[in-house]
Write a structure and sequence with these properties.
The protein has 118 residues and is an alpha+beta fold. 18% of the residues lie in helices and 42% in strands.
Length: 118
Protein backbone atom coordinates (compact mmCIF):
# COMPACT_ATOMS: atom_id res chain seq x y z
CA UNK A 1 0.00 0.00 0.00
CA UNK A 2 1.00 3.62 -0.31
CA UNK A 3 1.65 6.04 2.49
CA UNK A 4 -1.64 7.86 1.87
CA UNK A 5 -3.77 4.71 1.79
CA UNK A 6 -2.07 3.36 4.94
CA UNK A 7 -3.28 6.46 6.76
CA UNK A 8 -6.61 6.81 4.94
CA UNK A 9 -7.58 3.25 5.85
CA UNK A 10 -7.45 4.25 9.52
CA UNK A 11 -10.15 6.91 9.06
CA UNK A 12 -13.22 4.71 9.45
CA UNK A 13 -16.49 6.56 9.02
CA UNK A 14 -14.91 9.07 6.63
CA UNK A 15 -15.40 9.23 2.87
CA UNK A 16 -11.72 9.39 1.92
CA UNK A 17 -10.28 10.64 -1.37
CA UNK A 18 -6.64 10.86 -2.39
CA UNK A 19 -4.95 13.85 -4.07
CA UNK A 20 -8.17 15.26 -5.53
CA UNK A 21 -11.37 16.30 -3.81
CA UNK A 22 -14.52 15.69 -5.88
CA UNK A 23 -16.01 18.72 -7.56
CA UNK A 24 -19.60 17.67 -6.84
CA UNK A 25 -21.19 18.83 -3.61
CA UNK A 26 -20.64 16.04 -1.12
CA UNK A 27 -20.64 16.76 2.61
CA UNK A 28 -18.38 14.81 4.90
CA UNK A 29 -15.46 14.50 2.52
CA UNK A 30 -11.89 13.93 3.64
CA UNK A 31 -8.96 14.17 1.22
CA UNK A 32 -5.30 13.26 1.76
CA UNK A 33 -2.52 14.95 -0.23
CA UNK A 34 1.26 14.61 -0.31
CA UNK A 35 2.83 18.04 0.18
CA UNK A 36 6.33 19.47 0.29
CA UNK A 37 8.49 17.75 2.87
CA UNK A 38 11.85 17.93 4.57
CA UNK A 39 15.09 16.40 3.31
CA UNK A 40 15.65 12.72 4.17
CA UNK A 41 17.68 11.84 7.24
CA UNK A 42 21.07 10.22 6.88
CA UNK A 43 21.22 6.45 7.04
CA UNK A 44 21.14 5.24 10.62
CA UNK A 45 22.71 1.79 11.00
CA UNK A 46 21.75 0.94 7.41
CA UNK A 47 18.17 2.25 7.74
CA UNK A 48 17.18 5.22 5.57
CA UNK A 49 14.55 7.55 6.99
CA UNK A 50 12.38 10.03 5.10
CA UNK A 51 10.35 12.97 6.41
CA UNK A 52 7.30 13.30 4.14
CA UNK A 53 4.38 15.59 4.92
CA UNK A 54 0.72 15.15 4.15
CA UNK A 55 -2.22 17.51 4.20
CA UNK A 56 -5.61 16.25 5.30
CA UNK A 57 -8.53 18.41 4.17
CA UNK A 58 -12.07 18.04 5.55
CA UNK A 59 -15.15 19.49 3.88
CA UNK A 60 -18.53 19.73 5.64
CA UNK A 61 -21.72 21.76 5.71
CA UNK A 62 -20.81 23.68 8.89
CA UNK A 63 -17.51 24.85 10.30
CA UNK A 64 -18.16 23.18 13.65
CA UNK A 65 -18.91 19.81 12.04
CA UNK A 66 -15.71 20.07 10.00
CA UNK A 67 -13.69 21.07 13.07
CA UNK A 68 -15.09 18.22 15.15
CA UNK A 69 -14.23 15.69 12.45
CA UNK A 70 -10.73 17.15 12.09
CA UNK A 71 -10.12 16.84 15.83
CA UNK A 72 -11.08 13.15 15.63
CA UNK A 73 -8.79 12.69 12.60
CA UNK A 74 -5.89 14.35 14.45
CA UNK A 75 -6.31 11.91 17.33
CA UNK A 76 -6.34 8.90 14.98
CA UNK A 77 -3.51 9.99 12.70
CA UNK A 78 -1.05 11.14 15.38
CA UNK A 79 -1.28 7.79 17.17
CA UNK A 80 -0.97 5.59 14.05
CA UNK A 81 2.17 3.56 13.41
CA UNK A 82 2.98 0.57 11.23
CA UNK A 83 6.11 -1.22 10.06
CA UNK A 84 7.14 1.71 7.82
CA UNK A 85 5.62 4.72 9.60
CA UNK A 86 7.52 5.37 12.81
CA UNK A 87 5.71 8.53 13.88
CA UNK A 88 3.28 11.21 12.74
CA UNK A 89 3.33 14.72 14.20
CA UNK A 90 0.91 17.58 13.75
CA UNK A 91 2.88 20.24 11.87
CA UNK A 92 0.13 22.87 11.74
CA UNK A 93 -2.95 23.63 13.72
CA UNK A 94 -6.35 23.55 12.02
CA UNK A 95 -6.35 26.00 9.13
CA UNK A 96 -9.70 27.43 8.05
CA UNK A 97 -10.16 27.93 4.30
CA UNK A 98 -13.74 29.17 4.71
CA UNK A 99 -16.57 28.17 2.41
CA UNK A 100 -15.88 27.17 -1.14
CA UNK A 101 -17.48 29.39 -3.78
CA UNK A 102 -19.22 26.66 -5.71
CA UNK A 103 -20.95 24.56 -3.05
CA UNK A 104 -20.78 26.73 0.07
CA UNK A 105 -19.21 23.91 2.09
CA UNK A 106 -16.65 24.63 4.81
CA UNK A 107 -13.07 23.47 4.21
CA UNK A 108 -10.39 23.09 6.83
CA UNK A 109 -7.07 21.26 6.85
CA UNK A 110 -4.03 20.28 8.89
CA UNK A 111 -0.52 19.33 7.85
CA UNK A 112 1.19 16.32 9.37
CA UNK A 113 4.91 15.43 9.32
CA UNK A 114 5.90 11.78 9.24
CA UNK A 115 9.03 9.79 9.99
CA UNK A 116 9.12 6.86 7.55
CA UNK A 117 11.54 3.97 6.97
CA UNK A 118 12.51 3.69 3.31
Amino acid sequence: MSLLTDIGNQLSGETVYYSEIPSKAIDNVCCLYRVISRAPDLDLDGISLRNPSIRILVRDSTYFDAESRMEAIINIVTTFQNSNILSIFLESDIIDLGRDDEHQLYRIYCIFRLKVIV
